[in-house]
């Protein structure tokens, strides 16, 4: 049988997997075969809004985006294979981690969705970190809840359930209030021994005077953690209609535990084993290093989360990364259109990225910049003000401008990665993924310089989280004889995957270090901009 015939048979018999991820700017759906080969995909662009001082997404947009991405995928299947997609073997949903979706006992949303991007939970983060002796970043769901308690928000007394975006979608489609352990570990600390929420910390939180005024117990309003390969429910008839309003999709699909984008990134890069690591670059940027031993100290810039199987992971997360890089690229695209040169995105990025690599000074010509669209946790900047800063004698060229924006996308996370280096956290490999790596070599090479380590990019680097979620769904449906996730990935998914590894070059490493000196020294400019330019209602 030809590849086309194999895929047609898979679709006709329902031997396919669906993975959907709700990213910061795109909701993407991917359909794969049992071997993980992508058959079709669909996407929907969406945006967060800054309302009443908080970053949020409308829940109406959640469902509009999901249905639109699925409809596009379904149309692609019908166009390419002449088949209507009706039966799916297994599926899973992932999304941005952390944040706060709180519901009452009538399943009514109590306050607008508060995303990971909000840097408004500083007091809660500090107090819980001190209480637990464990870093609780501002993004974490428990920090959002505790800050609402500290602020005496009236909705808190009515909470019956709170979860993440992935957990919410899964709940609505299956009726199950569960969460993949990786995503759950960004809500409340997980005990690596039990694979459940840390009971000692549950007790500590429950005994806080401010918490004891409420009728609910924290363990009762959190979703139940599930591990990769666990059963997490089935698509209900109502859920099938919610996903595919045409009524074509059959109910009863096996649904994997919903995961966060960090977990799907680990799966998509085959980085779930001890001493492996990956880095994901998008609106935010985060690295994940699977630990072989605990860190010696608690660090405000290092999250301890888990893999989808519950292994402890050191996560360095920066709120801002490639947004400003994309904004400047769009500016050049607009100019190209004005002079009659309508470039494809691939050609545009190839041209601009090549200039950053081949036509730029090692340190980006003395330029400095901050692509901060929101507050940045690692550098303690409370709000976002995208800035380009140069001195009169800076070498202001397109190559240096683009090199600056690529460097800036890696700036904040470099600070956290230095901590891991000082802790002697070892990795055998760091795999990178994200849209910036679709343009070959450039971002990969400059990231290698930024981290001063080898960086690997797989041939599927552009597939990312939704593909990783589809793989987790396949594992949930196909787990045989107790096969571990690591073995399943190595033998069934990545056995023949092509990859390219690049080592850092001394010139680029030295140039990035010069840039980082300016980046750190210039943070006061960013803080001054916040005071001088009051925040408007931002829509990115």
TrEMBL record:
GO terms for molecular function: kinase activity. InterPro entries: ATPase_NBD, FGGY_C, FGGY_Carb_Kinase, FGGY_N. Residues 278-477 form the Carbohydrate kinase FGGY C-terminal domain. Keywords: Kinase, Transferase. Residues 17-256 form the Carbohydrate kinase FGGY N-terminal domain. It comes from the Bacteria. The keyword Kinase applies. The keyword Transport does not apply. Pfam families: FGGY_C, FGGY_N. CDD domains: ASKHA_NBD_FGGY_BaXK-like (cd07809). GO terms for biological process: carbohydrate metabolic process. Belongs to the FGGY kinase family. PANTHER family: SUGAR KINASE, XYLULOSE KINASE. This is Sugar (Pentulose and hexulose) kinase. It comes from Leuconostoc citreum (strain KM20).
